[in-house]
Please model this.
Amino acid sequence: MVFTAMVLVGISLVGLLNIQLNPSHRLPTLTVSYNWSEASAKVIEKEVTSPLEGLFNSIKGIKDINSVTSRGSGNITLSFKKQVNLDVVRFEVATLIR
Model:
C-alpha cells in the first residue's frame, strides 16, 4: 500500500521535471589536484587548500571556487566566465602556485 502511494506521488511529479532539449553550456573550468601522503585533511586544508584558494581568488574572470580536502589529498576546481582564455589562466595558476 505504501509502495503504491509512492508510485502515485512519483508519477504525479513527473510533469514538474526540468527537461532541456539543448544541453546547457558549461563554464570553463580548471582543477588543481595535490597529494600529501599521510597528512590529515585538517593539515592539508590549513597548509595547502586555504592558501591556494586565497591566491586563486585574485584571478580575473573567476566565477566560482570549490574545493575538497581529504586525508592525503585535495583538489580545487575553478570555474570561469565564458569569455576567459583557459591557456592564459593555466599559466597564471601555475605562476601563483610557484
Q: What stands out?
A: Strands lie at 29-35, 62-70, 73-80.
